[in-house]
Amino acid sequence: MILQEECEGNVKQLLAQVFKKSLEATVPNEADLHPLIAICNENFGDYQCNNAMSLFGKIRGTMPEFRNPRSVGEAIMKNLPESEMIESCSVAGPGFVNVVLSRTWIAKSLNKMLMEGIHTWAPKLSIKRAVVDFSSPNIAKEMHVGHLRSTIIGDTLAKILEFSGVEVLRRNHVGDWGTQFGMLIEFLFEQAPQAEDDNEIPIEDLQAFYKQSKKRFDDDSIFKERAQKAVVSLQGGDPKYRKAWAQICEISRREFQKVYECLGVHIEEKGESYYNPYIPSVLEGLRNEGLIEESEGAQVIHIEGKKIPLIVVKRDGGFNYASTDLTALWYRINEEKAEWIIYVTDVGQREHFEMVFHAAKRAGWLPLDDNTYPKVTHVGFGLVLGEDGKRFRTRSSEVVRLVDLLDEAKARSKQALIERGKAAEWTEEELEQTAEAVGYGAVKYFDLMDHRLTNYTFNFDQMLNDKGKTAVSLLYAHARICSIIRKSGKDIEELKKGGEIVLDHAYERALGLHLLQFSEIVEEACSNLLPNVLCKYLYDLSDDFTNFYNQCKVNGSTEETSRLLLCEATAVVMRKCFELLGITPVYRI
Ligand code: ARG
């Protein structure tokens, strides 16, 4: 990821600047010196600079004063300019330069963040606008757990990018333009002839309606023919059909909205139908570039290395998923001027996107080099499994309804709160809100905490466990910190003005350093589009806090002010992590 400018909280980046000077002094005749800074995994230091070995390879023979990589490392260390960041350095093995950061500097950075706000630690990316295409369920069909994953992952990625200063167009690419509509509309007219005139159509349960019409379609060939004609009428713009289509979409939209409201997700619909008017001219452009060929009556784009070509016009002359996606990509690049276009779907669609991206590169819409903007990325994710190890289904092997899942997570967390005696302590409203924050948060964290490509087994007991790697335990940890601060009776704003964080104890220092690493973690999550990196960071942070709290007395100690401020800094960073992960923090538990 190209960062636009230096970011105050990014330790790696700040160290890279210091080491760059040293590298320039060490090998003055080398151009293109890029400091390689990494977190130190050994106990030799906090960070290390790894340039010595490769640099020795480059200068061998031209600079006889260097006999081996280690001597290059020693020179890099010697040439380091004075820096308030660094407490001490050492050289290890074949020239790794280890750095121990100054605890005064770490503390100073934390104090500054407390005064100026956590936004000062946001990475600053070099791009201005991105599209995140996520959620994207299909009208009249079920919104299944795969769409839940897409919604949760996509929302987090959008939030992380937004935090990093990028304008994100959050796109719901709903499937609202398939041949299924012919069948649905024809069935509607058959079942409820008055629907042709009425403004409200009598569909209670759109999914059940979909199933019935599908059965009718499969069983009766005359109906099937009518349904196929209906598609033509709809696509030809017949007002009667357009109206029924719009009404069916509206019913679905209301259903989807319930899920988005539960999850607190904001997304803007630009469904497949939106791009329909643009398809002919986009395909015309591709045809002029010589990309489109005839194949068995269809029009296709051959993709190097792929056995099957990308079909862009079907044999019957109709457009398909690929024609729409190509056009949407064209639109996003040329009309919306997005520099990074991100698609969040299950891994099953990887091939489809690879073909679309490949075609776009051949058409010259995108640079051939994947590291140059505008660029496209498919963010794939694994399956959600049931306890039986198969795709997650209900007992009657139906697709699980998302709203039911979320309701159950909330109900279970409410029950747990009641068992802890909260019903007597809290108002009903507080109970409801906490149950929602914990229940929905648990579903989200469970979905995000492992690498997105891995499959996971849906399990309420695990995700609602109040110990271990769960939102519940993290939300509790945050509430506990808030309660430590409350119990001190001190006003944090006053403490900030009069006092400051000092990191004398080893566990204070460890916690302080971890807090400071927030910025580079967000940058990593952003560059690689991996929310699990942030989940792990948050979990480790709560661990570091526990170590600190077990070893360092806070309230009533001589270090009270500094330690309360350290508690506050931890709570601030935790809350930002929750926010980026779409989890609502709770303050009391
Ligand atoms: N509607 C599709 C599905 O449910 C996902 C669409 C993803 N986005 C896209 N631009 N193709 O599988």
Kindly report the name of the CATH homologous superfamily of the domain at 471-580.
Isoleucyl-tRNA Synthetase, Domain 1
Structural class: alpha/beta
The residue-averaged pLDDT reads: 93
The total of beta strands comes to 14
The proportion of residues forming helix, as a percent range, comes to 40-55%
**Oligomer state of the chains in this structure:** single chain
Shape: flat
Structure commentary:
By secondary structure, this protein is an alpha/beta fold. Among the domains are: 4-101, Gyrase A, domain 2 (2-Layer Sandwich); 179-269, no CATH class; 471-580, Isoleucyl-tRNA Synthetase, Domain 1, CATH 1.10.730. 52% of the residues lie in helices and 11% in strands. The chain has helices at 11-26, 52-59, 69-78, 103-116, 145-163, 180-191, 206-219, 221-235, 239-263, 272-275, 279-288, 321-334, 350-362, 402-419, 422-425, 428-448, 460-463, 471-488, 492-498, 506-516, 518-527, 531-551, 560-580; strands at 37-39, 47-49, 86-92, 96-101, 129-133, 167-172, 268-269, 292-295, 298-301, 310-313, 340-346, 375-381, 384-385, 456-457. The strands form four sheets. The chain has a five-stranded parallel sheet with strand order 7-6-5-11-12, sandwiched between helices. The chain has a four-stranded antiparallel sheet with strand order 1-2-4-3. The structure holds arginine. Arginine (ARG) is lined by residues 133, 136-138, 173, 175, 325, 328, 343, 345.
